[in-house]
Write a structure and sequence with these properties.
CATH class: Alpha Beta
Strand order of the largest sheet: 6-7-8-9-10-11
CATH superfamily: Ribonuclease Z/Hydroxyacylglutathione hydrolase-like
Largest sheet: 6 strands, mixed
Strand content: 15-25%
Order of helices and strands: EEEHEHHEEEEEHEHHEHHH
Distance between the termini: 39 Å
CATH architecture: 4-Layer Sandwich
Number of helices: 9
CATH topology: Metallo-beta-lactamase, Chain A
Number of strands: 11
Oligomer: single chain
């Protein structure tokens, strides 16, 4: 399974998952670039779907379907763990509510397309208001192998690393992460996120000490998650 990343808008990221001669578009706002790539590589765009229903992610969906004849898959109808066949390869859908209640993540071939649930260096805003669901979703994604590559819905890396440095100025892993950052191909591994992303470090002694210094409860994982989500 191959993945291709496309930029559109100010910082949005669209994706094609490709298996042999078939492709699936996810959050396909870069309509012209996606169609050009499909034609240039002799692919058939078979399916079009989204990670969640925010307009900046669904903006290209209808046009891609109309121009390609692809099947539209409504992300809101997927069951957790459901698989999508893409030319004999499986794409697994994980329901990851939190940013929105309809958010999903697509997992295939060692990559995750996470939308606005998990970014490179941070997590999305909890627009759903359900912090417990968001915590459960992040925990679900953290269970994947450390080598899993994270492809998110936006490039927020610069601001995310600045905030991580603000919270944990002595974390030298942030410098290594920044050195690997490529603004033409935005990706990190789950191991990178566990070392740098404050919102995945709720069991790290450095983050626990920070929470305690702010007078926030640290008795269990969920309390620590809530505390980190409240930090400024």
């Amino acid at each position: 399974m191959k993945i291709r990343q496309f930029f559109y808008g100010s910082d949005n990221l669209a994706y094609l998952l490709c298996s042999n001669r078939e492709a699936m578009a996810i959050d396909g706002g870069a309509v012209d670039a996606i169609m050009d790539y499909v034609r240039a590589h002799d692919l058939t765009l078979k399916r079009v779907t989204n990670t969640h229903n925010h307009g900046d992610h669904t903006t290209g969906t209808r046009r891609l379907v109309e121009r390609s004849g692809a099947d539209y898959l409504d992300h809101r109808q997927f069951a957790d763990g459901e698989t999508i066949d893409l030319d004999g390869r499986a794409v697994t859908v994980r329901r990851t509510p939190g940013h929105t209640m309809d958010s999903v993540t697509f997992v295939a071939g060692g990559v995750m397309v996470t939308g606005d649930t998990l970014f490179n260096g941070t997590v999305g805003n909890c627009f759903s208001g359900d912090l417990r669901a968001f915590y459960d979703s992040i925990r679900r994604l953290m269970a994947y192998p450390a080598t899993t590559r994270i492809y998110a819905g936006h490039d927020y890396v610069a601001a995310s690393l600045a905030f991580a440095r603000h919270l944990t100025p002595h974390n030298h892993a942030i410098d290594a992460y920044a050195a690997r950052y490529d603004n033409t191909h935005v990706v990190s591994t789950l191991a990178d996120e566990m070392a740098v992303n404050p919102y995945l470090r709720f069991n790290d002694p450095e983050m626990i000490a920070l929470l305690e210094s702010r007078g926030l409860p640290t008795g269990d994982e969920y309390q620590r998650w809530e505390g980190i989500m409240s930090l400024e």
